[in-house]
Request: fold
Amino acid sequence: MIENVFFWNWEPVLMEWLQNHMGEAGIRIASVLTTLGEETALILILGFIYWCYDKNFGKFLGTNIVVAIVLNPMLKNLVFRTRPYFNHSKIRCLKPVNAAADIYDISAQGYSFPSGHATNASVVFGSIAMKTKRKLWIVSGILIPVLVALSRVMLGVHYPTDVLAGLILGYGIAGLLSWIQSKVSRRWMLHLILFLLVLPGCIYCKTADYYTALGTMAGAFLAMPFEERFVRFENTRKVSVSILRVAGGIAVYLVLNRLLKLPFSKEFLDSGAFPALLIRTVRYAVVVFVMLAVYPFCFRFGRKKSKESSNEKIKGE
Reply:
């Protein structure tokens, strides 16, 4: 793996000062804030909007998200910047990207520039703010990504310039794609163009995060037209139903992702070899497609049962 070391002198100084003064309470707060830019948060937010609140809004948001999560590792694999704790002994890694792997394993922990968490938070909350144009979401769209970015610096896993670049990338994608989506009527054509634009990453990207994101994009872009043609589920504002839908979606993700790993050894999947990375892409494509296009078939069954119960109640009266 290629490694580049570069930083401005003020960056490690600031990071050391933050880690020396934030204390245990600061570590706990930063560890909580950083989760708002992680995969679980993306699934919960996007899942609720798509499965429950407004699926068209979910498709709009999902398009912005998948482009951001693919472009981020494409840039990382061009810059090759190592994480701060690789280069400065006084900076501690308080929350590694992959807790199960060696913190100095770049293939597992990923490169540093730009920050994926800052990109995720800014594209998600920035897109919501731009779509709703509500004051609360505009404030959240600024405040939450900045706090997530700060938490990454405090935890020792990103230089300040990493998170600044991540914020710029996320907000840039949110602004540009939100505008493009408002002008384009044929979503499938936009999706095809976007997928072809990021596909060259297969030529040079060596880290698993690119292939995870590529599979996620493929699954999402295939699921959207499939849902529109064959599923056509309805959203719900019922709290109990919303909780069940989101919980069910998370269960589908966890179970299916685990099942699709069973035919392969852990050593092969973790090897970083190109065939293993392709398997990873296909796995995530299948998981995301099932979550967005197949799983919602269950919502139609629930609606049908609800209507039958209502009809029986009316007849009884």
